[in-house]
Structure formats: structure tokens, C-alpha cells
Automatic annotation (TrEMBL):
Organism: Glutamicibacter protophormiae
PROSITE patterns, per the entry: STAS
Domain STAS: 396-489
Name of the protein in question: SulP family sulfate permease
Pfam families given in the database record: STAS (PF01740), Sulfate_transp (PF00916)
């Protein structure tokens, strides 16, 4: 914990108002976590208790070790999708060592500085990530609104109204908590039969205990779990780091992404030993805690996990009566609050380059279509790279002049694989005189593709019995070319 974070925590602990905000934020998040975590365990094909135990252990570990205060980490849908085939084909016994191995891989990635790669994610990919997330959160509520009693719809509408309007009266209590309490009271007292949290799955009746994997710890087991562990490590880390960046922007505070990386790994390792499923940052719940409920410190993260286990184990009968309509209402509001509406305004779209808008749309489309934020972001980054390379490649110009029996080609621009591939075609090999000068004083050689292209140009002229002189290279480019030239065939 940094000195600034320690000051923030101590200031919160000494202030009744701030501490109440953090505790209530944790409580609201825990209530929203329970049914969603249960749903994710169904996707993964494991007992609901596996997800609830994981959410508790991950929240507690991250609260003390994480690099992004107030971010919620628990059993998440993105990684549940990854491990579902493992559970289906080899059983839940292989899940826990896979979770431990995924955590170890994340710690190794943190040591290698993978978090620093976050700065290479373009802004439009981040916007697409946020918008795709918001749409995914909204669509995830649709099953709760199909083939349900008619009473669900007015309850959802009432919940949305409470979340929006209650803050106009007071902000002393989070509006989502009020909505959940009011709708639960109404359905219980009026005996309105609607789907409840209890119908999602059986809640645990005991605390998680430390257990060792029961599968053989040999190469065969490693062969089985390694592909899933690697996938979980990358998907979980990407989603967590992007969520951390999003919270940074919302709270206007920085976070330590490297620390968050190894903390996510540590949380998964601990979770695997306590019989939990893998997890990562949960963006929807983080938005509930940070954007809707005002959580800002590690206290809200810690108590989200503590309250979740306490509610599930001790107050399971009460929690089971919460109508799903109340949680749907909260998540719909979260979805609307998360979406970047400015990005789709006609004025913004007219002003924005079409390539930038295309990157955002690709990110959104694949995120929603696959249900996997990592795939959407990866596709967005790849699209942005291709469009950027294509745009930069067109900035390279080649000008030819002939003076006293010498053809001089002046190359201007950055030379790399996209621009240098066309370089070979820019010369008049047959028409040029015997002496050719290629002036690279206004350019820079970035990669082996460029060196190979220059070698090809020289060889082509040599075939005509002509001599090529390459001059003007800056020192780094000259060293790079000297090292590779003639060795790329």
C-alpha cells in the first residue's frame, strides 16, 4: 500500500461518513455478486459454492495486495467460459490445479512487465471495450426478462426509478441498496411470485477450507491443465488491467498495474487452494461499487467479499428471497452509466476519422458477439495496428532526380514492413544511369523488412551492372543495416 493509499484508508476509518459509504458500497456489490457468480458457476459446470468461495478469497487477497483500490475481483464469466471445457471433459478435480497454475503464470507475466503493454491500447479500443461491456451487461439481463411473470416488469421499472431518483433525496445510503431492500420487502409482504436469488442455486452453509489438489501432480496433469491455465491467465489479466484503467479514469487517481498483475495471480493461487474457481476483475460489479455507490478504497473491496460470504452462509434464507428483478434494475442502470454516449453522438462521429470509428465498432461487435472482452479488445488492437501501419506507409515518398550521370533517389518517411514492401517498386532499374544514390537522410530504418528491401534494390541494380550507394542513414539505422545487410536471404 502506498503512503497515499494508507492516508486514504486511515482517513476513511476515522470518518463515520466515509466508512459508511465504503461498507455500504461493499454490501451492494456483494448482493449483486451472489446471483451473477452462481450463474457463472453454472456456465463452468461447477457447484455454486465453488464460485462463492472463490469470490470471497479473491476479494480478500486483492483488498490487501491489489494495485487498484476499490476494484472488485471475483469469479468472473470471461474465465468461467475458458475453464468450462476442462471441467466437462476431466472433472472439477482438474479445475483447482489449473487455477493455481494460472495464478503462477500471471505472477510470472507481472515479473516480465506485461502491464506496461497497456499503454499500447488505443483510446478507441478502450472506448469500444467500455461500450461493449455496457451492452454485454445489458444483454446479460435479458434472460431474466423472458418467460417470467408479468409482475417482473413493473418491479424492474420501479427499481430503475428508485436508483435514478433516490439520490435526489439523499446520498446517505446507496440507491441500489434501497432498490434491493424495497423490492424485496414488496415481493415478500405482498407474496408476489417472481424469480428470486434462491432459485439460481444452492448457497453454501460453511466456510471454505484449505485443500490440496487431489489429482496426480505429474506431466500428464500439466499437459491437461496448461492450455486452460494459460488462457485464463491472459484473459483474466487483460480484463483486470483494462478495468483498472477504467477505474483510474472514473476516479482521477492512478494505480499500479504491475502490482495489480501479480496480485491477481496471487489471488488465483490462494483461491485454487481453497477450492474456488478462477477469477478476475468484474467490471459490472466494479461500476456498482465505484460509480454508483461511491466506493474509493480497499475497504469496499474487502467487505464486498466478506459480506458476500456472510450473507450466503449466515443469511442465506434472507438473500434467497431477493427478487432477481431488483438486481436486473441495478445492472440496467450500471449498463447505461457505463456506456460512453458521447462516442456515438452524430457530432462526434462526423468529427472522428472513419478508421477510428471502425476500430471502436470492431471492438464492440466482437465483444458482444463472443461474450469475451479479451477477444474484442484483441481484435480492436489488431485492427488499429493494421490501419495505423497502412496510414503511416503512405507517408513515405520517393523522389527521383538525375544529375551528371547519377540518379538520386530521396526517400522521406519511416521505413518499416508496411512502407518498405513497396520500396522495391519505386526505382527505374533499366532506365537509370550506372551510378545510383539512395538518400535516406530524411527517413529511419526500423526493421529487418526494410534492410531486406534495400538489399533487394541493390541486387536488382547489380543485375544491370549498376552500382548503388546508400547514404544519409542516421547512426542507429546505419548500425542496424550493417548488422543485418547480406544476412537475410
Amino acid at each position: 500500500m502506498t503512503p497515499l493509499e494508507r492516508q486514504s484508508v486511515w482517513r476513511t476509518l476515522k470518518s463515520v461518513r466515509l466508512l459508511k459509504t465504503e461498507l455500504l458500497a461493499g454490501l451492494v456489490v456483494s448482493l449483486a455478486l451472489i446471483p451473477e457468480v452462481i450463474a457463472f458457476t453454472v456456465i463452468a459446470g461447477v457447484d455454486p459454492r465453488v464460485g462463492i468461495f472463490a469470490s470471497f478469497t479473491m476479494s480478500v487477497v486483492i483488498a490487501f495486495t491489489g494495485g487498484r483500490p476499490a476494484m472488485i475481483t471475483a469469479a468472473a464469466g470471461a474465465v468461467a467460459l475458458v475453464v468450462a471445457p476442462l471441467v466437462r471433459t476431466h472433472g472439477v478435480e482438474y479445475l483447482f490445479p489449473a487455477v493455481i497454475l494460472a495464478g503462477i503464470i500471471q505472477i510470472l507475466l507481472a515479473a516480465l512487465g506485461v502491464a506496461k503493454l497497456l499503454r499500447f491500447i488505443p483510446r478507441q479500443v478502450m472506448i469500444g471495450f467500455v461500450n461493449g461491456l455496457a451492452i454485454s451487461i445489458f444483454l446479460a439481463q435479458m434472460p431474466e426478462l423472458v418467460d417470467v411473470p408479468w409482475a417482473v416488469y413493473p418491479l424492474v421499472a420501479a427499481g430503475i426509478a428508485i436508483v435514478y431518483l433516490f439520490p435526489k433525496l439523499t446520498t446517505a445510503v446507496p440507491a441500489p441498496l434501497v432498490a434491493i431492500a424495497v423490492l424485496t420487502a414488496v415481493t415478500v409482504l405482498a407474496k408476489i411470485a417472481v424469480p428470486t436469488v434462491g432459485e439460481k442455486g444452492e448457497l453454501p452453509e460453511s466456510l471454505p477450507v484449505f485443500t490440496l489438489p487431489t489429482v496426480p501432480l505429474d506431466l500428464n496433469t500439466l499437459r491437461i491443465i496448461a492450455p486452460f491455465a494459460v488462457a485464463v491467465a491472459f484473459v483474466g489479466l487483460l480484463e483486470s488491467l483494462l478495468t483498472a484503467k477504467l477505474v483510474d479514469d472514473i476516479t482521477d487517481t492512478p494505480s499500479n498495474k504491475t502490482r495489480e498483475s501479480w496480485a491477481q495471480g496471487a489471488a488465483n493461487v490462494v483461491t485454487g487452494f481453497f477450492g474456488g474457481i478462477c477469477g478476475c476483475a468484474m467490471i459490472g460489479q466494479t461500476m456498482i461499487g465505484v460509480k454508483v455507490s461511491g466506493g474509493r478504497t480497499r475497504i469496499s473491496t474487502l467487505f464486498a467479499g466478506v459480506f458476500m460470504l456472510l450473507l450466503a452462509v449466515v443469511f442465506g434464507d434472507v438473500v434467497a428471497q431477493i427478487p432477481m428483478a431488483a438486481l436486473v434494475a441495478v445492472m440496467v442502470v450500471v449498463s447505461a452509466a457505463t456506456f460512453n454516449w458521447h462516442s456515438i453522438r452524430p457530432s462526434t462521429l462526423r468529427m472522428m476519422p472513419k478508421s477510428e470509428t471502425f476500430v471502436m465498432l470492431i471492438t464492440v461487435a466482437l465483444t458482444v458477439a463472443t461474450g469475451n472482452l479479451a477477444i474484442g479488445v484483441g481484435a480492436g488492437i489488431l485492427t488499429a495496428m493494421v490501419l495505423f501501419a497502412n496510414r503511416v506507409a503512405h507517408f513515405v515518398t520517393v523522389e527521383r532526380s538525375v544529375d551528371e550521370g547519377t540518379a538520386v533517389y530521396t526517400v522521406t518517411g519511416e521505413l518499416f514492413f508496411a512502407s518498405s514492401n513497396d520500396l522495391y517498386t519505386q526505382f527505374s532499374y533499366a532506365q537509370d544511369p550506372e551510378r545510383i544514390v539512395i538518400d535516406l537522410g530524411a527517413s529511419h530504418v526500423w526493421d529487418a523488412s526494410t534492410v531486406a528491401a534495400l538489399d533487394s534494390v541493390s541486387d536488382k541494380y547489380a543485375g544491370y551492372g549498376k552500382h548503388v550507394e546508400i547514404r544519409g542513414l542516421n547512426e542507429p539505422s546505419a548500425r542496424f543495416r550493417d548488422r543485418l545487410s547480406g544476412h537475410l536471404d
